[in-house]
Amino acid sequence: MGKKEVSKKKSATEEGFSLLTDFDIHLFRSGKHFKLYEKLGAHLAEHKGKEGTYFAVWAPNARAVSVIGNFNHWNNNVHKLNPRWDESGIWEGFFTDVQKGEAYKYAIHSNTGEYLEKADPFAFYAEIAPKTASIVWDAEHAWKDASWLEDRKKLTGKTRPYSVYEVHIGSWRRKLEDGNRSLSYGELANELVGYVKDMGFTHVEFLPIMEHPFFGSWGYQLTGYFAPTSRFGSPEDFMHLVDAFHAAGIGVILDWVPSHFPGDAHGLFKFDGTHLYEHADPRKGFHPDWSSYIYNYGRPEVRAFLISNAMFWLERFHIDGLRVDAVASMLYLDYSRKAGEWIPNEYGGNENIESISFLKEFNETVYGTFPDVVTIAEESTAWSGVSRPTYLGGLGFGQKWMMGWMHDTLRYFKTDPVHRKYHQNDITFSIMYAFTENFMLPLSHDEVVHGKGSLIGRMPGDEWKKFANLRLLYGYMFTHPGTKLLFMGGEFGQTAEWNHDRSLDWHLTGYDYHKGVMRLMQDVNKLYASEQALYQYPFDNRGFEWLDYGDRENSVIIFMRKGEKPEDALVVVCNFTPEPRPLYRVGVPARGTWKEIFNSDDLKYSGSGLLNQSLMSTSPVKYHGRDYSVTINLPPLAVSVLKLHEEVKEFEIGS
């Protein structure tokens, strides 16, 4: 991205030029300008042979605005911006003595009488926290992912394996020998990319990497919307990291937070001395759970700001998907509020009509421009149609986190196996609604913080049983319908609760049980990617069929995963007790020879080694509603996956 030629345009600036046109202003004021990052903020520009920086900021309730920085000794009387003539509320100016790399803020004298110093909401770069100034920047990167983007387009609308490794960049791995510092973007390109590839994940998802003042917020309380956090390097360094993932064939998803923002003095809160971005009434504008502020989704300029931000990451950083945080809090006016603490909508209901409209427009805009990316909703309620198209009345997301599956499954696994027969519904209920949305199964960061402990820590029994349960959990998860997400550390059985101030406990991977879980995760990812029955119909009941969900006494469930071709069908048998069950009969959909292609009890995973290594020929014994069946040795606390090895007779797989 080179310097922009500043176009001549009637304006209140001294030299009479601007990057903004009348059409830009029309789109901005109507909430339809979705590339505001090209116009607002700080832009390196050239006019009449002179290089400098053009600034533009929306502050309609200011009586004076200037740019302050080291270049003027932070004097707010030097680099004054001028209000545009069109009543857009935008202040602008062009200065030849401000160049790339300069730190700056906007000095705002509000109509309320307040004096404020604000970071630039549209800045592309920021000072390293705890400093809070913006930096004039124009990232330049020679992208090398053209083939990746072309392949992404070709795969639009086609189902494929979708296994996500969720990462908090600041604590994945740290340099203990260098003051326990986090890895840089460059170091992550060298270490994380290869690791994710080796583990077999198809995507990586980063907790918010946008600039945020408080490291302990994990990025969810952000102030730099268009700037990758400078804690780990420059914007170009982050671009290089994305490029490296794409070169390895791995997609990149970013957590995106349009639900709330913090009240830091340099941020959006009361940006021009008034409630510009947030609702003035705290019953609509203050978030009680996070002590943060809620966007005014009914204000056109705010909608344009947020959607422009989403488009920025997809366009400038080649991001492959956005996971939208806290959607439930956006949908309901009474979310986490008691009676009298919220205001009903115009129809008397608790639905946030303005937010719903915004989410639909966000998804329509993203998919209208980038049909080959994905938007994913973290939505924890029974709201209907989250991942259905807007033209069918849905919110338009591509996928939705299956929070019900997560809660039920973890509750079930926490139960001592001797009592699981009384809780069979916890492990089977998800199929009742599994195809009502495009669900992603999440075992996310939220499940290993705030006193919840680690995943392995929730498993009952002695050490062997704990790890067997964890392997069983992953085997069950990756054979269940839906896409997958696992937070870092879970893939090797991290024992401690996640702490953002320290590295994962990588030394554990030197121990057999942890190595076994890691090996299993590699193999289950390979199984998922290689068997079409596991990913061809992830959101469609054509890809699933129960064989038996009623064996409560033995805590066993049996189901089929199906692809387009009948011969691709898999039979999945889960034994949720530590009791091995020899000669357990299983109905199968075709006569012939069946083979066990995966068993989580394998010795290489530190299991007990109760495998079915011999081929299994069907018997004409009707079972589980099938004309043919096989007998297998059911391993303890394990999942076994069977596939037809040799077909003899027509299939009996239902539609």
User: Radius of gyration from the CA trace?
Assistant: 27 Å
Class of secondary structure makeup: alpha/beta
The tally of strands reads 32
Name the CATH superfamily assignment of the domain at 4-135: Immunoglobulins
Q: Would you state the CATH class of the domain at 4-135? A: Mainly Beta
Provide the helix percentage: 10-25%
Largest sheet: 8 strands, parallel, barrel
Beta-strand residue fraction: 15-25%
Average pLDDT value?
94
Stretches with pLDDT under 50, minimum 5 residues: 5-14
- Strand line-up in the sheet with most strands: 11-14-17-20-21-22-23-24
Q: What gross morphology would you assign?
A: elongated
Distance separating the two termini: 53 Å
* CATH architecture call of the domain at 4-135: Sandwich
How many distinct helices?
Answer: 14
What is the oligomeric state here? single chain
CATH-assigned fold name of the domain at 4-135: Immunoglobulin-like
Outline the structure in words.
- The structure is a single chain.
- This protein is an alpha/beta fold.
- Among the domains are: 132 residues, Immunoglobulin-like; 107 residues, Sandwich (Immunoglobulin-like), CATH 2.60.40.1180.
- It has an 8-stranded parallel beta barrel with strand order 11-14-17-20-21-22-23-24. It has a 6-stranded antiparallel β-sheet with strand order 25-26-27-32-29-30.
- Strand 25 and strand 26 form a beta hairpin.
- Helix 3 packs parallel to helix 4 and helix 6 packs parallel to helix 8.
- The protein is elongated, with a radius of gyration of 27 Å.
- About 2% of the residues have low confidence.
